[in-house]
Amino acid sequence: METQGSGTHSVDQLTTAQAVLQRLKQAVQAKVIGRDEVVELTLIALIADGHVLLEDFPGSGKTTLAKALGEAIVDDQERHAGSDNPPIAAFRRIQFTPDLLPSDVTGSAIFDASTNAFHFRHGPIFAHVVLADEINRTSPKVQSAMLEAMGEKQVTVDNRTYALDPLFFVIATQNPLDLVGTYPLPTPQLDRFLFKIIMRHIDRDAELQVLDTWQQRRDQSSSTIKVGRNEILAARAAIDEHVYISDSIKSALVDISRNLRHDERVLQGNSTRSLVLSLPALQVLASLRGRPYVSADDLESLLPHILGHRVELAPGVSDFNKVLRDCMREPIEQLARSTLKASA
């Protein structure tokens, strides 16, 4: 049982974590206009230690989003002389093309004639925020190297493994319209992404604001709001430790998944891994909403983004959201009844 002191300490840690989230949100929203939901989901994925796949069209602001997030993060970790770990870049953009090689992403061993030895040259993947632009335009070999780094937070070159930073975060994009010369990601690889976010055109007022402020935002070279890398990692740990997930929430997650897998409109359901990955995301959303516990509202908000790219629908079925709503209805009602019973 928590003592009064430990309870106060947990409240302080959560308050600090919420402040970190709000500062990051302000920094990104100052550069990215009209996409508040996308910004929020991206920050949830960052703090929940996941990755994001954006399905978008050219010029939708994905580079601006990733760059604004990277520029808001300050690398404040201590580095010791002689360490193999290089300084981590805030942001790197990798343009994926069919002729790209895995070494173009991860780095490669370069021969140094002066020392008569090979030295590893770190690739662009060694950054806090990596924009993997048009990831479906590169070969499966490069996709595998990228997704291995996302899953294990490490790269292996010439039988030597190099660790990526714990904050390593990928924003990948794919164009849903121009599919010529692409290598679509199979479902098991899509499962590596916490969220798939479909970006729409921003509304008229937001688009006018973009035109009115583009010079001001262009001349502002970097974010004036900065958040330390260690602050983000501390916020991640605090939310994980102090935001409560009840057994009823976990039961609802499992029941929704089982309903999807048994629904005749679904060809392939979601994995157990998706349920595990959803827990920290739900905790972060609850924290953003000022609660130290996960609620049914959090489930309804996030599950479409968590499960949409993991569930394969049967031929002739196109409306995933309707299928999900039907499969969620009974578990959410049971969750509401159990919550009322517990509070009675």
TrEMBL record:
<protein>
    <submittedName>
        <fullName>Methanol dehydrogenase regulatory protein</fullName>
    </submittedName>
</protein>
<dbReference type="GO" id="GO:0016887">
    <property type="term" value="F:ATP hydrolysis activity"/>
</dbReference>
<dbReference type="InterPro" id="IPR041628">
    <property type="entry name" value="ChlI/MoxR_AAA_lid"/>
</dbReference>
<feature type="domain" description="ATPase AAA-3">
    <location>
        <begin position="51"/>
        <end position="195"/>
    </location>
</feature>
<dbReference type="GO" id="GO:0005524">
    <property type="term" value="F:ATP binding"/>
</dbReference>
<dbReference type="InterPro" id="IPR011703">
    <property type="entry name" value="ATPase_AAA-3"/>
</dbReference>
<dbReference type="InterPro" id="IPR050764">
    <property type="entry name" value="CbbQ/NirQ/NorQ/GpvN"/>
</dbReference>
<dbReference type="InterPro" id="IPR027417">
    <property type="entry name" value="P-loop_NTPase"/>
</dbReference>
<feature type="domain" description="ChlI/MoxR AAA lid">
    <location>
        <begin position="261"/>
        <end position="312"/>
    </location>
</feature>
<dbReference type="Pfam" id="PF17863">
    <property type="entry name" value="AAA_lid_2"/>
</dbReference>
<dbReference type="Pfam" id="PF07726">
    <property type="entry name" value="AAA_3"/>
</dbReference>
